[in-house]
């Protein structure tokens, strides 16, 4: 599925509920700041690529779940916080989230 360059700033929690075979999603060049776990509940076992280039994703504790489960599928760079701005999602490690409870 391709949703690139649509001005999307958030994703509803049930977005992929009825799409159990979905493997590729492109949200490039939107305004998405958060990637929440409930959004991807329907594609936990099938998602292979999530394109997020050009989004100001906040790489804080809220994406730790995604990084531990899907680290290799997420394509793009962090938009914040300042110490991670511009870092690729691929470069983040568990050490980047040790402050999270």
TrEMBL record:
GO terms for biological process: cell surface receptor signaling pathway. Gene3D superfamilies: Ribonuclease Inhibitor (3.80.10.10). Keywords: Receptor. SUPFAM superfamilies: L domain-like (SSF52058). One of its GO terms (cellular component) is plasma membrane. The keyword RNA-binding does not apply. It holds the Pfam family LRR_8. It comes from the Eukaryota. Belongs to the G-protein coupled receptor 2 family. Adhesion G-protein coupled receptor (ADGR) subfamily. This is LRRCT domain-containing protein. It comes from Nephila pilipes. The gene is AVEN_47258_1.
């Amino acid at each position: 599925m391709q949703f690139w360059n649509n001005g999307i700033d958030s994703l509803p929690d049930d977005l992929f509920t009825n799409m159990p075979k979905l493997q590729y999603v492109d949200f490039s060049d939107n305004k998405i700041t958060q990637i929440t776990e409930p959004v991807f509940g329907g594609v936990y076992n099938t998602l292979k690529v999530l394109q997020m280039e050009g989004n100001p994703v906040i790489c804080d504790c809220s994406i730790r779940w995604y990084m531990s489960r899907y680290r290799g599928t997420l394509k793009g760079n962090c938009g914040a916080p300042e110490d991670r701005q511009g870092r690729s999602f691929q470069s983040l490690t568990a050490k980047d989230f040790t402050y999270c409870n």
